[in-house]
Design goal:
Number of strands: 15
Radius of gyration: 21 Å
Shape: globular
Number of helices: 11
Largest sheet: 7 strands, mixed
Strand order of the largest sheet: 4-3-2-5-10-15-14
Helix content: 25-40%
Structural class: alpha/beta
Distance between the termini: 62 Å
Amino acid sequence: MEALVTEWLPWRSAMERALYGERGFYRRGERPAEHFRTSVHASPRFAAAVARLLTDVDAALRHPSRLDLVDIGAGSGALLTNVRACVTPELRARLALTAVEIAPPPPDLPRDLTWRPDIPDSFTGLAIANEWLDNIPLDVVERTPDGVRTMLVDPSSGAERPGPEPSAGDRAWLDRWWPLAETGDRAEVGRPRCAAWGAVLRRLDRGLAIAVDYAHTHGSRPPYGTLAGYRDGSTVPAVPDGSCDVTAHVALDACAVEGERAGATATALTTQRAALRALGLTGARPPLDLAHRDPRAYVAALCHAGEDAELTDPSGLGGFGWLAQTKHIPLPTPMTTPPR
């Protein structure tokens, strides 16, 4: 009987193939909303908040003849079309919508929306990457009795074994951003995410770029990492066989430094809860007397309050980190709101 051959790969290679290979999870056209709840699909109120932010950016840029809105990791493109519906007709006439997504476009793609697999070489306006960086493939390392080792994974089962020492570049990143003190400690090497975010800032001529993701910062890294899998709305083992989304939280503080190297002139790290509240999504319940004066308005306001509460829940979507970086404009006020 012929023995089965196990293929051992670094996690970065396994994730790249599982997510973006020829038969990869996202290459097949899987949409995030089919597998986990995103802010975009939780409520159109998220797009309304982004529209307010876009209006602030437009004002800071002094209303250019063309204003770019670039959605990186656009999924179905719903955020772009929802934001467009929220802005004034005057701004809408100048708005250029670009969806950056490797999956094929939906059949009902609007004619004025550009769909492309890579970030534009140059743009001015607002770029938003909502749950994009967490899907940038990366390596996983562990401190073993023999030192820090890059972990190898069997893509068919998710089984692991220690591999070689990390590269010099990965080791330098770990020493600065995620040092491993004890045997058994694990880390996800965020260097590829930093490089990806730096590429966004290099292509932004003027304006604002925002990364929104589950995140952690230096001093509060999870000791055993955050690698996880998602399929059909449930958490599943992170097996990089192409059957599920494989993700890990993002070291946004490290990405911020890379953004500054790429030319960012101002930086803010906040939470989704703080940012959306500053953009008007307070979650406050409407006054009861409105139910008597205008029942329909009361029901609508009550629905909005519930949607705002979900988007700003600190134990859920509101716990996302927001990294905001500008080039040649001030940070919009909502991005400077302290987390609370």
